[in-house]
Amino acid sequence: MKSKIIVLLSLICCGYAVNAQFKLPKALLFANVNYASPANEKFNVSNRGAWGGEAGLGLGLGKTLITGTVGYQVFGMKVNNLGGDLQVIPLKAGIRQYVALGKVFFLGNVGTAFQSFDNTSNTRIKTNNFMWEGGVGVKLIGLELQGTYSGWQHPMGTIGNATMLNLKLGWSFKL
Asked: If one looks up domain 24-174 in CATH, what number appears?
């Protein structure tokens, strides 16, 4: 009888230990408005900063989430840019890792930038190129603030890579 009680107590203790280690999956829905400032000289000479927005979903365990994001931005043309406004639709997948008290996070994304560029002859330049993004953010009571650095190949070949600094403010909700 004594051995059965010991076995029973051992199983109960093991059950509590396993339960303490098990984490339920997390789901996160987020959306933000952002301002992007061209960071390299050639991009800055041809286009102004862009206002835009993005929305996404994150899924994961513990402090690590796999994310998917879609957005929209319009970089206005400058006087010396005959191409017109650059419209960018980024489609990204990445990782978000929370590090400090579940409030501070690092993020990394890769994906594609669908771009359309209206030029003065009313013909449309459309491309999609690989894009990358890395940054840091903080989440407080559902409000999120992010600072990121990102880049992709600009559709006007003479500009090369378009890199930008982004400031993002929005909301995130656990589902």
From this structure: 2.40.160.20
Residues 6 or more apart whose Cβ sits within 8 Å of residue 141: none
Q: What is the Cα–Cα distance from 112 to 91, expressed in whole angstroms?
A: 5
Over its C-alpha atoms, the chain yields an Rg (Å, rounded) of: 23
Three-state secondary structure readout of 58-97: EEEECCEEEEEEEEEEEEEECCCCCCCCEEEEEEEEEEEE
Going by C-alpha positions, the residue among 155, 152, 35 that lies closest to residue 83 is: 155
Residue by residue, what is the 3-state secondary structure of 88-100?
A: EEEEEEEEEEEEE
Instruction: List Cβ neighbours of 49 (8 Å cut-off, separation of 6 or more).
Output: 35, 36, 37, 38, 75, 76
Number of residues written out for the chain: 175
117-170: per-residue pLDDT in tens?
766 555 567 788 899 999 999 998 889 999 999 998 887 766 778 889 999 999
Residue 24 Cα to chain centre, angstroms: 23
What is the C-alpha separation between 89 and 50, in angstroms, rounded?
12
Classify 20 in phi/psi space as left (phi over 0), alpha (psi -120 to 50) or beta: alpha
SS3 at position 156: coil
Residue 108 near residue 94, CB atoms below 8 Å: yes
